[in-house]
Amino acid sequence: MTTASTSPRPVIVWFRDDLRLSDNPALTDAMRRGAPVLAAYVFDEESPDVRPPGGASRWWLHHSLSALERGLAARGGRLAIFRGAGAETIVGLAKAADAACVVWNRRYGAAERQVDSAAKAALRSAGREAESFNAALLREPWEVKSRAGAPMKVFTPFWKAAQALGEPAAPTPAPARMPGLDGRWPGEIPLAALDLLPTRPDWAGGLRATWKPGEDGARERLSAFLDEDLRGYAARRDRPDLPGTSRLSPHLRFGEISPRQVWHAAHAAALSAERPPSSTDLTKFLAELGWREFSYHLLFHNPDLATRNYQPRFDAMPWRDDAAALEAWRRGRTGYPFVDAGMRQLWETGWMHNRTRMVAASFLIKHLLIDWRVGEAWFWDTLVDADPASNAASWQWVAGSGADAAPYYRIFNPVLQGEKLDPAGDYVRRFVPELADLPPDAIHRPWSAGPGLLAGIASKRGYPGPIVDHDAARARALAALAATREPD
Ligand code: FAD
Fold first, then answer.
1. DSSP 405
2. Which of 13, 62, 293, 363: CA 20 to 30 A from 437?
3. What is the pLDDT, as a whole number, of residue 2?
4. Does the beta carbon of 391 sit less than 6 angstroms from any atom of ligand 1?
5. Residues designated catalytic
6. Distance 375 CA to ligand 1 centre (A)
């Protein structure tokens, strides 16, 4: 297909991690040009070092692309989908469409940046315009720096410096109409041909029951959070048994909503609500967006954040290979109910509460002494919000190997964490039904239940005893850390 020579040459909007029509600077720029807009998506598993999405992300991506297709169709447009190496495919499409210009929103992983620079160079050398924008972050990673102009390594000064740059720009609305071009382009395929959904077996029932991917779903989630849970957020955010957090993470990950939209909507809600949230609620919530920004800052300045210890001292950790323990952790069968509830929440819904992410990750790294990268890879495969920056930075944070990380020697006690943050045991009861009959004082330590109850759990319901003893595991973890110390 080619465009008629009399009509203006089209502008291609290359969608990637920005699957939305509102507050999308690349799209806004394309519309401003007044030329026909060609919306394109390239599923790229071919460019070197681009990390393929995990299973849960593939599921989300399918539905998010489907929602974007519907959003475009409602405005008279359509999404052209391709599979291939990102730069080559988009450069080929620009040639086929004789596009005057290609616009996109930036990505921050090293491999993706490589793809984007190659595309920009090839497009420009073919006489086309190529422009990129910031859609994913409140501030570009290079805008926030220390007084000396260096990358930041500690969260609090980072977030202070980011906020000192002023309010993020106000979000822009979605275009009312954006007629696309008729016909099909060479290499174009239907969404289903990307084969992103699980079939044999179809394990996505829990995901379907939990989430509504897409821009409308993101907007609804944000409104519900602002109406119901921003007030009280600071006090409730650590309680996995309560619906106290926004659950916006997968929507942010796929760019169905922008952090600018969330930032402005949270401020507006705080001003207009009848029963407004406290300033601590608002500050705390915005600081979580700040952690997301900090993770991207770290990724940008440390491209191998998912594979290399930020603190090289951890290269000497004597990690263990223990396939049986790893499998027990993955399946939520460690015998520690709070950890198991988190791991099963992940398996069932593709998401885990932040607090149980911390405790479950710590359990793998410290109680089982298994390399944090093994856990990072499991989360990458199973989280619907699996994020190249936040997942890597958070795993390194828990391991103690990261920037501004929790010290390694602070080892969570999964029993005490459960008793404190899931006091009635409702969270465990929901995800570990074998323990549903236990009273609150035994649910986080089933081994302390009376012999009758315990026998019932073990024999009839098959819940395992603890796979490691907490005190022994703690001592082993501390000894492992001591072994990494440089000799005096
Ligand atoms: P809210 O509390 O409502 O926070 C609002 C938003 O802020 C979130 O949607 C998220 O985008 C961001 N945010 C919150 N906490 C963090 C944080 N600690 N670091 C970075 N951003 C944050 N988050 C991901 O988005 N993707 C991941 O792959 C990911 N992996 C993690 C792995 C581990 C081991 C740990 C401990 C944390 C991980 N997190 C990750 C961070 C955090 O757990 C989730 O962002 C949060 O639980 C999402 O829930 P929410 O949207 O309800 O968060």
1. P
2. 363
3. 45
4. yes
5. 288, 291, 319, 354, 372, 395
6. 16
Residue 249 Cα to ligand 1 midpoint, Å, equals: 6
Regions in the chain scoring below 50 on pLDDT: 2-4, 488
Q: What is the DSSP letter of 53?
A: P
Angle between helix axes 337-349 and 414-421 (nearest 10 degrees) is 70
Distance CA(403)–CA(394), nearest Å, equals 10
For 137-180, give the secondary structure using H, E and C. CCCCCCCCCCCCCCCCCCHHHHHHHHHHCCCCCCCCCCCCCCCC
Q: What is the DSSP letter of 458?
A: I
- What are the respective helix, strand and coil percentages of the chain, to the nearest 5? 50, 5, 45
Complex ipTM: 1.00
* CA distance linking residue 110 with residue 455, whole number of Å: 53
pLDDT of residue 455: 66
Please write the tens of the pLDDT for every residue from 314-330. 999 999 999 999 999 99
Place of tokens 């990072």: 376
Each residue's pLDDT tens digit, 390-423? 999 999 999 999 999 889 899 999 999 999 999 9
Q: In whole angstroms, how large is the CA radius of gyration of the chain? A: 24
d(CA 342, CA 240): 9
Q: Is residue 258 in contact with ligand 1, taking CB distance under 6 Å?
A: no
Reading the block at residue 467, the tokens are 């796979």
Tokens of 407: 């010290």
Q: Whose CA is nearest to atom 17 of ligand 1?
A: 291
CA distance 29 to 471: 59
Instruction: Give the residue whose CA is nearest to atom 30 of ligand 1.
Output: 391
As a dihedral over the C-alpha atoms of residue 393, residue 395, residue 397, residue 399, rounded to 10 degrees, the angle is -150
Check if 295 has its Cβ closer than 6 Å to any atom of ligand 1: yes
In sequence order, what are the beta bridge partners of 15? 41
Tell me which residue of 204, 480, 465 sits closest to 335, measured CA to CA: 465
Rounded CA separation 264/253 (Å): 18
Q: 133 - beta bridge partners?
A: 105
Of 468, 301, 473, 299, the residue nearest 396 (C-alpha): 299
263 contacts 289 by C-beta, under 8 angstroms: yes
Does ligand 1 lie within 6 Å of residue 358's CB atom?
A: yes
Nearest CA to ligand 1 atom 18: 291
3-class secondary structure, 104: strand
Query: Could you tell me the distance, in angstroms and rounded to a whole number, from the CA of residue 234 to the centre of ligand 1?
Result: 15
**What DSSP assignment string belongs to 424-450?**
T-HHHHHH-GGGTTS-HHHHT-GGGS-
Asked if residue 361 has its Cβ within 6 Å of ligand 1, the reply is: yes
